[in-house]
Write a structure and sequence with these properties.
Strand order of the largest sheet: 4-3-2-1-5-6-7
Radius of gyration: 15 Å
Strand content: 15-25%
Order of helices and strands: EHEEEHEHEHE
Helix content: 25-40%
CATH superfamily: Isochorismatase-like
Distance between the termini: 14 Å
CATH architecture: 3-Layer(aba) Sandwich
Number of domains: 1
CATH class: Alpha Beta
Largest sheet: 7 strands, mixed
Length: 196
């Protein structure tokens, strides 16, 4: 049994001061770093995803072309490939062996399973290659990319734990609904105290 950690979109544009800031995002970055520092052998694999949107398109309608984004299907411009906003938050310290996943290139790309590694491998393939059976998930935002990534992990047969003290959402009610949906689908809701 190999346990992996999914770190979802802990990026400058999703934390305080960013283009699409999530309240508590900076605290999540620091908390994830503390978890990894305190439990360096807890995970056989660490995956970190980033939105990495194309600069010269609306990324499949993901960026609002004009007027106000609806913050459901369309969003302000964020996490454009190669910009400071797309970089990991400075408080996030990742292990050297982290598998970096870029998603949302020309599309919305909410789930870590929508992205690929630097070598072009899909997340699902990398889980199989590395013998991963269990996944802990942390990051941003609870009601969007954490939700989508968690549901896809369950679809891929993973035993999923959502570490609820290391996530933050855009909308409190939608975040609660997302956690309920994940639990109903088979995820375990826990805090990072369970990590050994």
């Amino acid at each position: 049994m190999t346990r992996a950690l999914f770190i979802i979109d802990v990026q400058n544009d999703f934390t305080e001061g960013g283009a699409l800031a999530v309240e508590g995002g900076s605290a999540v970055a620091a908390g994830v770093s503390a978890l990894l520092a305190g439990h360096p052998n807890a995970y056989g694999c660490v995956f970190a995803s980033r939105d990495w949107h194309d600069p010269d398109s609306d990324n499949g309608g993901h960026f609002a072309p004009s007027g106000e984004p609806d913050h459901s299907e369309t969003w302000p411009v964020h996490c454009v490939a190669g910009t400071q906003g797309a970089e990991y938050h400075p408080a996030l310290t990742l292990p050297e062996h982290t598998i970096h996943i870029r998603k949302g290139q020309g599309e919305a790309g909410y789930s870590i399973f929508d992205g690929v590694s630097a070598g072009g491998d899909k997340t699902g393939e990398l889980l199989i290659t590395n013998g991963v059976t269990d996944v802990d998930i942390v990051g941003l935002a609870t009601d969007h990319c954490v939700r989508a990534s968690g549901l896809d992990a369950l679809e891929h047969g993973q035993h999923l734990r959502v570490l609820t003290d290391l996530i933050a959402g855009v909308n409190p009610e939608a975040s609660e609904a997302a956690l309920a949906e994940l639990a109903h689908a088979g995820a375990v809701l826990a805090t990072s105290d369970v990590v050994a």
